[in-house]
Amino acid sequence: MAKTGIATINWLFICGLAFCLGGAVVLSLLPMGPMGTDCICPLSGAKPIIGDILKEAPANQHLQAAHNMAVLVPFRDRFEELLQFVPHLTKFLARQGVAHHIFVLNQIDRYRFNRASLINVGFRFTSAVYDYIAMHDVDLLPLNDELRYEYPSDAGPLHIAAPELHPKYHYENFVGGILLVRTDHFEAMNGMSNRYWGWGLEDDEFYVRIRDQGLRVTRPKNITTSKNDTFSHIHYHRKRDTQKCFNQKEVTRKRDRKTGLKTLKYRIPSVHAMSIDGINITILNIILECDINETPWCDCSGTQASAASNN
Fold it and tell me: Hey, which residues does 135 pair with through a beta bridge?
């Protein structure tokens, strides 16, 4: 009886070992994901060909697009919105025959959310292939097909989410929500400021950059809908990070002539292909770097920051 028990144990051990070794062999044969390098190189090569996104486009749509748009979506913990955003926007743009690809700019570092810096990273990654970008909030869905995501004119950026159409923000200098910018214009403006950690004001500073570059914001004309039915705002009422610490309030109210594309510091440790409802998108995992001497408000969680915010 004892010998039988020992034999059973030995047999189980051999089977378990074989299973583990077999699993290791199988894993070694599987294609690996993105390598853990410090930097993923920007895109390069020929401009993309319109594919499945144009299945709903008019029959006379040319396969080779004159212009190609990179949809840059600053992102952190908004998966529910993303599941709605991707199929909705893809169908919307397909009806217009707009060649595009969606890039989700996923901030994975420990610092506060920095929408502007993420857009700068997305621009650096895509600008060799795409000739204009859409700076696009993940929670704002266009409903009116009169909103044309066309290549911006020489005048300057095209603001799709115009103040008279946006469901929430109506001041004249507002350029948030959805803004289309040519790559040459974005480069000339040195991109966006990198000083805006937390929520708000980065768009207002960018408006000043547009003006200082001698450009002007253009907006859709003759739109037949209003602020109540031009967009669907699918924000899930998450608490926004509006905290101000150190001298953040003072500094971020001024035009930033120091930071932008040329001072951007970041790493992209991985890039992932993802499919939502059969639509292929690209996820960039982004680690932003913060110079605590320049912008200590990238982290307002410490005791010193809490004390400074109360002054």
Answer: 72, 179
Domain boundaries, the chain: 69-306
Exposed, middle or buried by CB within 10 Å (0-12, 13-18, 19+), for 22?
exposed
pLDDT at 120 over 50: yes
Give the whole-angstrom CA distance, residue 48 versus residue 71. 14
For domain 69-306, the CATH superfamily is Spore Coat Polysaccharide Biosynthesis Protein SpsA; Chain A (3.90.550.10)
The fraction of the chain above a pLDDT of 90, given in percent, is 65
Q: In which region does residue 218 sit, left (phi positive, over 0), alpha (psi from -120 to 50) or beta (all else)?
A: beta
Residue range 282-303, pLDDT digits in tens: 999 999 999 999 999 999 987 4
Over residues 54-71, the pLDDT tens digits come to 333 333 333 478 999 999
Q: CB under 8 Å to 247, separation ≥6 — which residues?
A: 297, 308
> What pTM does this model have?
0.80
